[in-house]
UniProtKB/TrEMBL annotation:
Keywords: Cell cycle, Cell division, Cell membrane, Cell shape, Cell wall biogenesis/degradation, Glycosyltransferase, Membrane, Peptidoglycan synthesis, Transferase. It comes from the Eukaryota. Residues 264-425 form the Glycosyl transferase family 28 C-terminal domain. SUPFAM superfamilies: UDP-Glycosyltransferase/glycogen phosphorylase. One of its GO terms (biological process) is cell wall organization. PANTHER family: GLYCOSYLTRANSFERASE, UDP-N-ACETYLGLUCOSAMINE--N-ACETYLMURAMYL-(PENTAPEPTIDE) PYROPHOSPHORYL-UNDECAPRENOL N-ACETYLGLUCOSAMINE TRANSFERASE 1. CDD domains: GT28_MurG. This is Undecaprenyldiphospho-muramoylpentapeptide beta-N-acetylglucosaminyltransferase. Residues 69-207 form the Glycosyltransferase family 28 N-terminal domain. GO terms for molecular function: undecaprenyldiphospho-muramoylpentapeptide beta-N-acetylglucosaminyltransferase activity. HAMAP family: MurG.
Amino acid sequence: MASTFCYHFLTPKLPTPPTHNTSSSETSQVSLSNIVSKGRNLTILCCRVSLKQSTDQIVAAQDDAVLRVVFAAGGTGGHIYPAIAIADELKLAKPSSQILFLGTPNSMESASITSAGYDFEPIPTVRLARPILFSLQNLFLPYRLIKSTIHCLSKLRDFDPQIVIGTGGYVSFPTCLAAAIKGIKVVIQEQNSVPGVANWVLSHLSDIVFVAFNSTVDCFPKGKCIVSGNPVRLSSKKGVSKGVARLSFFPEWKEIEDDGETKVVLIVGGSLGAKAVNIAMLNVYHQMLMEKEKVFLIWQTGVEAFNEMESLVKNHPRLYLTPFMHSMDLAYLAADVVISRAGAMTCYELLAFGKPSIMIPSPNVSEGHQFKNASLMADLADAQVITEDELDSTTLKTAIEDLLGDERKMADMSERALKAAKPNASADITHHILSLVDVSSTKK
């Protein structure tokens, strides 16, 4: 068809000899000159058409190229939700992207990821027991790691991704290791202020390490880090006012406005629960509600602790008790002060929403991550830190009331938190990922 096109439309037409009196030699010269000139012009036109067609084909091929990405995330929401936020942003940037999550079977990630609309495939668990040197379970760690890595190699061979993104959890290490073995681009995203052993090892095999805080850069190999912030899914409730958010928890209180006097305290002990936080609140919540008529409490007990707390807590119209918060962004919007553990993602959400906070870091998290996160929050946003050794009902009640009674301090804490946050983390990470894949494709 292309040859027919060229023949009919690009083949030069011989000119008709002029009818006026001209010598034969002059006629021949004019005709030959016209033929040569038109032939040159048409040759150039043909080249231009061919070049344009080639360029269009290249652009179309680039547009149609499918980006295949594997995410490795699991264990807790702090690892899972950043991965989902990045995946959402990749889908916005390249709707044709094919995304696969690898994780532990029958786990939090298997439920969360499928409900977010992404494909999920399980791989064998590789769990590092604590303490590392004195746990008999770790004797079998090399065997389990080899088994899981081989399984990951098979998954990567079948899916054939251009890049693998690890956001933490036990599943992240063997998946990223398998990707490095296969020569696939690897990036990791570290949510905590100080990394764990697994991500520190993986950083030496990775192309890019995305970190949330400037202070984390020194923990990784030089030149690998990009300070992006933690990716947080905040977009769904951007247009909701504080008053509307409050009414979603207390619909019968039509007068619960953002009037400067009404205060909402949000208590978050994590998705599973925090026993020490729950007990401290149990001994103080009723007295606070009786003494402060303008105070409302939103209390997430955690799934494992809810039944016990529900049986002990008295119903009150200004108390909202729940095992798990499905609309965490609404809860942040409604709250004036947040009492929370110091998980990495919780800390970053508090910064992103500009919330004054009282942090009670868990002493049971490996490598002291939560205490380090809480200390950084104190530096960045003047968050108040209460260790579990210091925690009791009197200490907690005093901290809450002192903060609620100091409007200037709350405003300063909010301003500092917002200033420290990076709300475009997901978009920035996605931009660097796409650039890395493009560079990788060009080199190939």
